[in-house]
Structures are given as structure tokens and as C-alpha cells.
Design brief:
Order of helices and strands: HEEEEHEEHEEEEHEEH
Structural class: alpha+beta
Largest sheet: 6 strands, mixed
Strand content: 25-35%
Low-confidence stretches: none
CATH class: Alpha Beta
Number of domains: 1
Number of strands: 12
CATH superfamily: GHMP Kinase, N-terminal domain
Mean pLDDT: 96
CATH topology: Ribosomal Protein S5, domain 2
Distance between the termini: 45 Å
Shape: elongated
CATH architecture: 2-Layer Sandwich
Length: about 260
């Protein structure tokens, strides 16, 4: 039996008894903290800690030409950098598949929820619009990076204000009091599966041996705006239903911390 199979057996046995390596229950998050305004150069920023997992997110705004098919709408971009300092699993260089997935899942949740009123980002139709860019950086990976990144991104958007814009120039040194036109606050919650056990907010040791996961992005009214399946094991309709209920519950819980 390989070391990974042995670890999986230990994790699965503990979950069957509703126990985790750190003493939590299956449906229990680690302590969550949010710190705002950690970067003086970003238009909005936040640091999120879920247990020992730590992620920072920053919002930058620029003025660009809109896409031809959406001449009166601004747009959103999300980048995620999994820094080597946060885990020996990450290496310098181009974005990894895991980093791309984190960025896409966060982006999709915000975009599909219609979280930002993109029409209010229009300065001059077909000529100039605001582009909102979210940069996510991992500081320490102790499991559950997707949920931490989603919460950090939304926290940074919540705090973001426009820079001064006059005579077709942006003055990044001067912040206005005008906040981003946010309409909803979508959050991603990932539910994991090992055997017939479902649980949330894994430690890295638990996440390494998971069989399947489902990331569910929901808004404050409980609506699902995005789904992302991971892992090689299929999910039954009943398991998906249970995962969605857990995601809605913890989405509300994490939103209350904002």
C-alpha cells in the first residue's frame, strides 16, 4: 500500500467518525479572518486567512477600449499566482493548471452572478470603459485555496474605489469616494468527497487524497451562479444536492464576515 493510500484510509476513517485531523467536524470551517486595505497602490485590497491558508487579492482599474460586441460595458479580468513561497508544490514560471483553475472559478462566479454593474463602467460608448482587474496571490497553502481566493476577491471588490479620472488621464495617486457598482456578492464554497463522506474546508493533507470536489458559487439570495467539478470520481445527483445545500449555507456564513 502506498503512503497516499494509507493517508487516504486514515482520513476516511476519521471522517466516518465525524472527526478531522485538527479536531473539527466535517461541516465546520476553520477560523476565517479578513483584513482590508493592505496595499496602498491597489484600488482595493484584502488579505484572507482560513486557518493557516492565506491569500491576498488586489483590484486595479484601467481605462480601455470596450469589446466591439459590448460597446457600453466595462469588463473583468482575474489572475491568480500560486507563489512558490506558499507551497513546495508551486514552481516559478508560467501559470500552472491549478492557478488557471483558481482564476477561472473566481472569475466565473463574479461574472455569471452579474456582481458588477458593467454598464456603469462605461465612460464613452464604444470608446472608453473601465476594466477591473483582480490579482490573487497565495501566501500560504494549507488547503482550500479556491474558497480563500473567492473570499479575498470579493473582499477586495467591496473595498475598491475609483481612482481620479480627468482629461482622459488616470491619477492613481488620488482615490475618489466612488465605490465600484456592485450588485451582488457571490462566493465560492467547495465541498469535497472521500468515499461516501462529504466535508468542507480541507487541510492540505485531506485535499491531497480527495476523490471529488464540487465548487458552488452562490449569491446572497441562494441562487447558483457557477459550478466547477474536480477529481476523477463521479458524483450522484443526491450528492450534488447535498453539496449545493452545504455551499449555500457556508456562502451565507462567509458573506456575513465581509
Amino acid at each position: 500500500m502506498s503512503m497516499k493510500d494509507e493517508q487516504k484510509q486514515h482520513v476516511q476513517k476519521a471522517l466516518q467518525e465525524n472527526l478531522r485531523y485538527d479536531g473539527r467536524k466535517k461541516d465546520q470551517f476553520r477560523a476565517v479572518t479578513i483584513e482590508y486595505n493592505i496595499s496602498k497602490s491597489a484600488e482595493g485590497s484584502a488579505r484572507v486567512k482560513i486557518g493557516d491558508t492565506e491569500v491576498i487579492a488586489g483590484v486595479k482599474m484601467s481605462v480601455e477600449t470596450p469589446y466591439p460586441d459590448t460597446p457600453d460595458e466595462g469588463s473583468l479580468m482575474v489572475n491568480a499566482e500560486l507563489l512558490p513561497l506558499s507551497s513546495p508544490r508551486f514552481e516559478p514560471g508560467p501559470p500552472s493548471a491549478e492557478g488557471i483553475e483558481v482564476a477561472r472559478v473566481v472569475d466565473r462566479g463574479i461574472r455569471e452572478a452579474g456582481a458588477i454593474d458593467v454598464k456603469k463602467l462605461c465612460i464613452a460608448r464604444a470608446e472608453k470603459v473601465w476594466i477591473v482587474t483582480i490579482d490573487i496571490c497565495t501566501i500560504n497553502d494549507a488547503g482550500n485555496l479556491i474558497d480563500a481566493s473567492s473570499l479575498a476577491a470579493i473582499a477586495a471588490l467591496k473595498q475598491a474605489t475609483f481612482p481620479k479620472y480627468e482629461n482622459n488621464e488616470i491619477d492613481y495617486q488620488t482615490r475618489t469616494d466612488t465605490k465600484l457598482p456592485m450588485r451582488k456578492w457571490p462566493l465560492a464554497i467547495t465541498v469535497f468527497k472521500i468515499g461516501n463522506q462529504l466535508f468542507v474546508d480541507p487541510l492540505r493533507e485531506e485535499e491531497d487524497v480527495m476523490e471529488a470536489r464540487l465548487t458552488v458559487s452562490t449569491t446572497e439570495d441562494g441562487k447558483i451562479c457557477a459550478l466547477q467539478k474536480g477529481g476523477s470520481t463521479p458524483l450522484t445527483p443526491d450528492e450534488i444536492d447535498q453539496m449545493i445545500v452545504l455551499a449555500q449555507k457556508f456562502g451565507d456564513e462567509q458573506r456575513s464576515k465581509l
